[in-house]
Structures are given as C-alpha cells and as structure tokens.
Write a structure and sequence with these properties.
The complex is a heterodimer. Chain A has no helices and 11 strands. In chain A, strand 4 and strand 5 form a beta hairpin. Chain A is an all-beta fold. Classes of the chains: A mainly beta, B mainly beta. At the A-B interface, strand 5, strand 9 and strand 10 of A face strand 5 and strand 10 of B.
C-alpha cells in the first residue's frame, strides 16, 4: 500500500531550528513534496526533491533519502509566521500525490 | 483572474440536494485535481484530469463526478449530497511539463451537508 507518515504536532521556539520528518511508501516514486498550510488557507508549495540530498531555499531546506524512504524539512530562524501545518506528499508512478496528514507546528515566543 | 479560483467559498447544503463546486484556472495548466481535506487525514484525491476532455478517478470518487470541457474549468458535482461529504474541497492544477511537478491550489470550498 501507499503511506506517508509524519508527526501530528511539534512545538518550537521563535529563533530556533526545527526538523520535521516524513517517511513514505509509494508505488513507484517521482519525487517528494513539502507544502505549508496556514489554518483556513490553501496549501502552498515549499519544496520538491527527486534526487538524494539537501535542497536549500532561504530559511527552509528539504532532504531526501530514497533508499530509506525518508525526507525531512528543516526550518531555521523560526518566526511566528511559520506557525502552520506542514504537509509531506510523495508522487507515485502515476504522478499522483499521496499526502500525509500534516504536522502542525506551534511556535512559542 | 490570477491562479485558481473556486466558488462558492462556503456552502451549507441539505442532504439529498445536488451541488456543483466550481473551479477555474488561468495558467493554462493541462492537469487539474479535486481533493477533500478532513481533520486528521491527508488530502485525498477525488478525481483528476490530465488534459481537457479526459478525467480519472482518484482515491475517493464515490458520490462525485467531474467534467473537463475545456482547459480552464473543472467543476465537481455531488449528485445527492450526504453528511459524510462535509469537508473542505480544494481544486488544484499543475503543468506536467514543468520540472517541479508543483500543484497550485485554489482557496477551497467549505461544504457542510446537514
């Protein structure tokens, strides 16, 4: 079967670093996505990894290990506006996205 | 229009009624999708369309139908709404030719079926 696992909730402090992990099982693999979703809003794209390694984009970085079926999203210099849900999604052989339930990130001052 | 629009923003519907959720994009994307999002669950694909004139079933298609008469519009119809269809519905689109395969989402429709 296809499955995406990520923690339900995490708490971090403003200015700190947080790592959100995701493990995936998909039928075939065409990449791993991270999206951000603020409460009551639509998901917005953060990153896409198809090859192993780290992709850095400003304060956000995403890592992929295809052999381990594992990814993480790293958020640095946390700001209050980073309080949101972070959705991990794997793209299967049919180019369909399989979504995790999301990790709610709470930032405390 | 910029991006994807959805209508209505929210709707309360009596069980058994027919309802069409509208989705329009102006990015000329070939692929479009309908998802539902429920608390504690990931986004679940209802139906998709890879190009105008074609549609396919996703993970949870029962009770829903779609059409894709042109590139821009992708309406979702609930023929006879039931309370279990209470959810937030997101329409999305993507350009399969783009390297990133990124999906762009509309603002969502919050539907309550009583």
């Amino acid at each position: 079967g296809q499955n995406i696992d990520q923690p339900t909730e995490m708490t971090a402090t403003e200015g700190a670093i947080v790592q959100i992990n995701c493990t995936y099982q998909t039928s075939g693999f065409n990449g791993l996505f991270w999206y951000q979703q603020h409460a009551g809003e639509a998901p917005t794209f953060l990153s896409y990894n198809v090859l192993d390694g780290l992709e850095e984009k400003g304060r956000f970085s995403s890592f992929l290990s295809r052999s381990k079926g594992y990814s993480y999203l790293l958020l640095k210099e946390l700001q209050m506006k980073d309080s949101a849900s972070y959705l991990c999604a794997g793209m299967d052989s049919n180019y369909q996205l399989i979504w995790g339930a999301g990790t709610k990130l709470i930032i405390k001052p | 229009i910029a991006g994807i629009t959805q209508a209505p923003t929210s709707q309360i519907l009596a069980a058994g009624r027919r309802m069409t959720l509208r989705c329009t994009q102006d990015m000329r994307h070939n692929a479009m999708y309908w998802y539902r999002q429920d608390l504690g669950l990931g986004l679940r694909l209802i139906h998709y369309s890879n190009t105008a004139g074609t549609t396919g079933k996703g993970e949870v298609p029962d009770g829903y139908s779609v059409s894709r008469a042109n590139t821009d519009d992708f309406p979702l119809t609930l023929a006879s709404a039931v309370p279990s269809q209470t959810s937030v519905y997101f329409c999305a689109s993507s350009d399969p030719a783009a390297n990133s395969n990124e999906q762009f989402f509309g603002p969502g429709t919050r539907l309550t079926v009583l």
